Amino acid sequence: MNAMHEVDYKIYGDDMQFVEVELDPMEAAVAEAGGMMFMDDGIEMETIFGDGSQQNSGFLGALMGVGKRLLTGESMFMTVFQNRGVGKKRVAFGAPYPGKIIPVHLSEIGGELIAQKDSFLCAAKGVSIGIAFNRKIGVGLFGGEGFIMQRLQGDGWAFIHAGGTLYQRDLAMGEVLRVDTGCVVAFQPTVSFDIQYVGKIKSALFGGEGLFFATLRGPGRVWLQSLPLSRLADRIVSSSKYVQGGGGREEGSLLGGLGRVLDGDN
């Protein structure tokens, strides 16, 4: 495995954050295409096949890395930002929507992290970004976001993004936490992850929480988010229907719904 680049960083902002990574000469960071916010003169960008962690394994190794990324719905390519100048240089990466950026030093948590496929933001070059399959039948059939996840491996810094408010919790041996599937951001590989049925048909049909939830069983650390991207997107789409229909100020309230009934809109 390639030596990790020991980058320094600083996180700015509150609800709409960005992380500024400081690179020594020849140090590099790797990120998904389109994640860069700004960079100093002297930093060079290079588009690479896969995640750049398999440089010594030849074309076949790179091709396998690309196949893994395609399974998670990501691009075949990533971007490397390397300091080719003199002295320290900075490059920044912005969060895709309101939330918190989580810095994780992989060597401090055992060298591996399992994360939702859309949560990865950037990392020190050398961190491997692959896939993590969960073979449990519940996850395979009903997991949604949780079926295919990303596996981050290495001993350097990795940065992931959580929507809304971040919640971090250390689960004891055998301790179980039940979570909405979209609210799971990341967890250590020692945590057992499965999908379970809600159990009561009335709750499933009318409770508004869906038919299934995730169960996380310790030991290990888990990171949760209060605002999954899927939930945010659903609200935006739902609200846009009223906007396109020429709704008034009270569209989101009971008064707005009553007004549409009286106007003959329903």
What does this structure look like?
The structure is a single chain. This protein is an alpha+beta fold. It folds into two domains: about 10-225, Double-stranded beta-helix (4-Layer Sandwich), CATH 3.60.160.10; about 230-265, no CATH class. About 20% of the residues lie in helices and about 40% in strands. It has five helices and 19 strands. The chain has helices spanning about 60-70, 135-140, 200-205, 230-245, 255-265; strands spanning about 10, 20-25, 30, 35-40, 45-50, 75-85, 90-95, 100-105, 110-115, 120-125, 130-135, 150-155, 155-165, 165-170, 175-180, 185, 190-195, 210-215, 220-225. The strands form four sheets. Strands 5-6-3-10-13-8 form a six-stranded antiparallel beta sheet. Strands 11-12-9-16-19-14 form a six-stranded antiparallel beta sheet. The chain has a four-stranded antiparallel beta sheet with strand order 1-2-7-4, with no helix packed on it. Strand 1 and strand 2 form a beta hairpin. The longest helix has 16 residues, at about 230-245. It is globular and about 60 Å long. The model is unreliable at about 55-65, about 70-75, about 135-145 and about 250-255 (pLDDT under 50).
Short description:
With 266 residues, this protein is an alpha+beta fold. It is built from five helices and 19 strands. 20% of the residues lie in helices and 40% in strands.
